[in-house]
Amino acid sequence: MIKGTYYAREFNLSGLNGISDQTLEMHFKLYDGYVKGTNDLNQRIADILADGVVDQDETPAYSELTRRLGFEYNGMVLHEYYFENMKRNGSGDPDRRLEFYQATVDSFGSYEVWKADFVSIGKMRGVGWAICYQNPTNGAVSNHWISLHEVGNVSGFHPLLVMDVWEHAYLLDYKPADRPKYIEAFFSNIDWRAVEARVQLKEALLIGAGLKMQRMERSHELAHQ
């Protein structure tokens, strides 16, 4: 259960290359449904927990609602990442001076190899997402297939680039077998500034790791006092 009410965000993406406004309108409505679903499930779970106890006869409903929340909540959040990392008149590929570009070189040997991996994941059969994550421990980036919305997300890793490859993301514009054309269109609309803003610099990662170690040492000291 998550306290508070979520509200659907608005995204101005009219005029994208290869992704029609009709598709976007449908996609935004679907996203709104995930926001409403998240709020509804949170409230229903809160109602069960109101007396501080999950009774035996409430357990089946509680379990199913909690499982469903993972689907709806991740669906809401991933769509926000997806819409946020697109814009009109994208540049296609990132500037070589960006930290994201350098991270792909450090992790894959070249940006081209990283892109080939990401695109190939996006072409995989199934419904889900292709996501490039950053490891907060060492700054490395890696690409992953996420089934549905909640299966395969890497715990603790930070999403940098998120691509929706459910058929609803492109079916009004392309045939199901033409997903590669949609992926090509997606890349032409990427807002690399949004992606760059998600990248954690190595210096910050090192500082964060040092602070984490200090907290662990302090916790260990308190436990033995």
Structure description:
This protein has helices at residues 21-49, 59-84, 99-108, 111-122, 179-188, 192-198, 202-223; strands spanning 128-134, 141-147, 158-164. The protein has two domains: 21-84; 99-209, minor pseudopilin epsh fold, CATH 3.55.40.20. It is built from seven helices and three strands. A three-stranded antiparallel sheet has the order 2-1-3, sandwiched between helices. By secondary structure, the protein is mainly α. The radius of gyration is 20 Å and the shape is globular. Helices cover 52% and strands 9% of the residues.
Detail the topology: elements first, then pairings.
Blueprint: H1 21-49, H2 59-84, H3 99-108, H4 111-122, E1 128-134, E2 141-147, E3 158-164, H5 179-188, H6 192-198, H7 202-223
Helix pairs in contact: 1-2
CATH level 4 superfamily of the largest domain: Iron/manganese superoxide dismutase, C-terminal domain
Number of strands: 3
Strand order of the largest sheet: 2-1-3
**What helical percentage do the residues reach?**
40-55%
> Which of globular, elongated, flat, extended, rod-shaped describes the shape?
globular
What Rg do the Cα atoms give? 20 Å
Overall mean confidence score, pLDDT: 91
How would a crystallographer describe the biggest sheet? 3 strands, antiparallel
